Amino acid sequence: MRRLFLHSPKAYxxxxxxxxxxxxxxxxxxxxxxxxxxxxxxxxxGAFLILLGLLGLVARLGAFDTMAYGFSRMxxxxxxxxxxxxxxxxxxxxxxxxxxxxxxxxxxxxLAAGLILRAxx
Length: 121
Known about the structure:
The protein is mostly helical and 121 residues long.
């Protein structure tokens, strides 16, 4: 459980900055700072961050390995076939931290803040 949430503070800061930028952009594009617009903007940013994190999870599970192998064959083929490529990437991913988790965690916080604000309106 500790490995799931333990990341570099830079990853959480990047997710927080992205969420804040999306929120401000949403508020600015809609013109005005009414409370329900803040709730909508926070919820939208939270949902976007969660979906971005889930896309990272899907990539970590190897959903895009076939496409990446096809592109790698165009330049310098380092692997004999797709099976070898997939096994090498799975081994590399198993040692890497769960990079998608900061986006999901910060996204849940943004979504919760948006829902709380929405309940207050």
